Amino acid sequence: MLKGLKVYAFYLAVLSLFRLVFIFLLQSYMGPASGMGDILLALWRGSRLSMQTAGCLALVSFLPALFLHYLLPKLEWFSWRVLNGLLLAMLSILYVASFPFYRQFRMNFNQMIFNGANDDIYALFITMIQQYWLPVRLAGALLLAYGLWRLLMAWLKWTPLENFLRLMRLPLVVRLLGRLAFLAGVYVSVMLGIFGGSLGWQTAVDWENAGVTKDEFLNEAILDNPQAVYRAWNLNHRMLACNGLDFTVEDIRSLAALLSGRQPDSDDLDVYLQKIAGGAQLEQPSHVFVILSESFANWPLLDKYKNIPISQGMRALLAEEDTDYCPTFLPNGASTVSAVTGVVTGFADANLYLTTMPESFKEPYVTASAPQMEKLGYATNFWYAGPATWERIGAFTQAQGFDHFYSRGDFGDVPGSVWGCEDEYLYDQVLKGLSDAPSFNVILNASNHSPYDVDVEAKGFDKEAVRATLPPEAQNDEELLRELGHYWYADRELARFVKAVKAKYPDSLIVIVGDHGDRYNIDKTPSTYERYGIPFILTGKGVHKGTLLADSAGSQIDIMPTIFELIAPKGFTYMSVGSSLTTGNRRGVNYGFWITRNAVGKADTVPLLPESLNGGEPPVIDDQAMQDYINAVRSISWWRPKYGPILDASRLEGRE
User: By three-state DSSP, how is residue 408 classified?
Assistant: First the structure.
């Protein structure tokens, strides 16, 4: 039991030290308003949470040793050595991996580690080698584990107190009291381990209530790596079980009615999704393009960054008379697959992994983009820079009604990374594949993605000119410069493609959005708006300044309704959860945030807490109306793809 307590104390010390070093090395991600008091609170709160982690880890090696102590005493010490060696290797690998993971996702381990199981494993492996120096990091982690293991073994062998007590001839009463005190200490340690630094569940600390500081970075640092993995597993389990959402059929009916402006008098959800186009605002274009540009965030297009020469292509496009722009737009989710599902199916991210659900492969959803564009006379094509097997994207898009799917395997031997061919070659393939027949094309590129290995300097990127425009603290950040170079490349190739399309098919309509933001910023602690916002750019014949509402805002589920209202004849019936930015859409919502033309905020707080887009005073919003909109979009996007059109409470029976 004493060995078990020593192991418990050792793991608690290691986890606490890991946390301290993590905060120290990544302190640049901490908000400027955070001080020593916040750091101490995070360390204290984290140590309490880590009592639970340390207890679990100690139990793994204690229980086998306990049985071996009585059954096979010669193997007891071997058990302590082997099991703790494995546990320390796991801890060290997770810890070393947590640094690049945080830099990439601004979070401790989250659901993205489970999304990776559906991703291209080979591409992930190559990326980890090329960008994150996997062999070096792994060697460092194993060396760290070995050093910790030697310390733990020495700590277990260090027994001066026990030897001292054996030499002393203490009275029986004192020895009995000492044993009672020891057992009481064991009991307290066990309780602290079970309840996360508390003696009861009422004050227990767990991953859901641990983040109590005002700083997002410190709140993430509170979670030790095993707790972060447990959080990711828990949330992924909820997603797979659809437990992340909890609406009754009555809730959904009322919310759907509010969203559609109808009476809540039908149990057929599709009644509320039906919309009628008001009449074409443009001559029907020969080709329609929706370009999902990898990691194409909106912040480089803001005025405060106009002197940084990485977005000249889009800035020039925005200045043209046939282009309009909504700067208040949100991605559907935190990853590329959410953008794909948003555009392909029309549903918001609602804790469903649509590319893996059997329901997605039975038939296209009524809100799917491809079948509705076919009704307008368009052949439908999906163009992807990467492999067809990624996220089952080839099978998924065709199951959802696209006539043709093209991926890197169709393009021949073209330059690129493990994630896909370079943008210029993708766009070249698209242009070659077009004909005079009307077509609807969704294009997903991949160059602006780790491992960021396009030779952008050879392609004309002036790194030193960009470096000179950065703040002093960022000028020596070579990794950031490499990332900015890839944004420059994506921007340039987008502009070239748009110009080529307009020259060849001048009556085309082109929509440009990022698939997501939230990968890199110049500011280590960007505002919510700068971190998550993506651009919505509309260009083509007939488009003009004012085509979009002056106060429009939206998310990726609003792309197709906007296109329908621009090109569909009056009376055309279409189905969508979102609505057009040309008629009435002044708010957007996604997996975690909402946005309007002058405010942004997290979607899961009650009440909602608006943040100004420009750092001024928080604007006032209609809290109830926004809450209803968030819940309506989420509940419909959860029920309809999972359970079908009919609101039937019996479908929820037996749900956990």
Answer: helix
